[in-house]
Amino acid sequence: MDDSKWYKKPEMIVAFSVLLISVVTTIVGIYSAYVDRSYARASVWPRIEIARSYNEQSFELLVTNSGTGPAIIKHAEVTFKDNVIHQWKDLGNIPNFIQSHLSSRILPSQQKINL
């Protein structure tokens, strides 16, 4: 009869080695998935740029998404002299203006909106 301890038997040493390798492999796999997910999120960031153009006859706003992912615009507001403009008539005498709506839109990558 063999009097050696159960954990000193060759098949138990192999079993513990396989268990250790499996745990390390699982940890590396989880970390790799975390890094891949972070990279995927970072690679589709939107980048919103707002420009304005004006002369004596017109004023124009241009909103551009120059990033790599879509930008979801939930809310936009216009301010004038630190006051929020709720209606364009609040600005005073503006002849011949056209109103555009910007909020609740998805601006795809590399696209622009002329306001």
Walk me through this protein's architecture.
By secondary structure, the protein is of the alpha+beta class. It has 2 domains: 6-42; 48-114, no CATH class. It contains 1 helix and 7 strands; from the N terminus they run αβββββββ. The chain has one helix spanning 10-42, and strands at residues 48-54, 59-65, 71-73, 78-80, 83-85, 105-107, 112-114. The strands form 3 sheets. A 3-stranded antiparallel β-sheet has the order 1-2-7, with no helix packed on it. A two-stranded antiparallel sheet has the order 3-6. The chain is rod-shaped, with a radius of gyration of 31 Å. It starts with 9 loop residues before the first helix and ends with a strand. The mean pLDDT is 80.
A few lines on this structure:
With 115 residues, this protein is of the alpha+beta class. It has 2 domains: 6-42; 48-114, no CATH class. It has one helix at residues 10-42; strands at residues 48-54, 59-65, 71-73, 78-80, 83-85, 105-107, 112-114.
Computed Rg? 31 Å
- What structural class results from the helix and strand content? alpha+beta
DSSP, total strands: 7
Global outline:
rod-shaped
Largest sheet: 3 strands, antiparallel
List the total number of helices. 1
Into which percentage range does the β-strand content fall?
25-35%
Across the major sheet, the strand order is 1-2-7
H/E element sequence: HEEEEEEE
